[in-house]
Amino acid sequence: MGRLTNLQAAAKRFASRFELFATRSGLDLAVYPAMEEHGEPSCVLLVEDDQPSREALARILAVEGYCVDTAENGAQAFERLHHPPRPFVVLLDLGLPVVSGQDFISRQKQEPEIADIPVVVITAAFEPWVPDAVAVLPKPLDLPALKHLLSVLRARQSSRCIPAA
User: Fold this and answer.
1) The pTM is what?
2) Segment 69-78, tens digit of pLDDT
């Protein structure tokens, strides 16, 4: 119980520090959306079992202009990959209930229609081994590093898209 309370407090501090940083930096919190070439927001699937952490990061991503779909476990995440909107990336915690992060990645890579969606692992685990992830980011999360990684992945996906004739 004490660990959960500490995580919830940390998530609240994280969200309020980000808002304070944004205000001091003159960052407009109504930033234009990260758009795909055909005018729709870029979608991120955020998989995190800790509700305060999930909500805080989802809000930050929304402020950055991303469409954010969330799941609290690997089973929900796997289900969401089979329904629109298709995310351009999955942000995945490893220590999930029901279906773990490792099991989620293993199942995802076995299905050709969703295997190409990159997975970024966000974890507090010390030196995790996740060979099928495009990146592993440690908690506490480095927001500028995440933002840069998302822009690189978004650009990579956009460059693979062939416009309709």
Assistant:
1) 0.74
2) 999 999 999 9
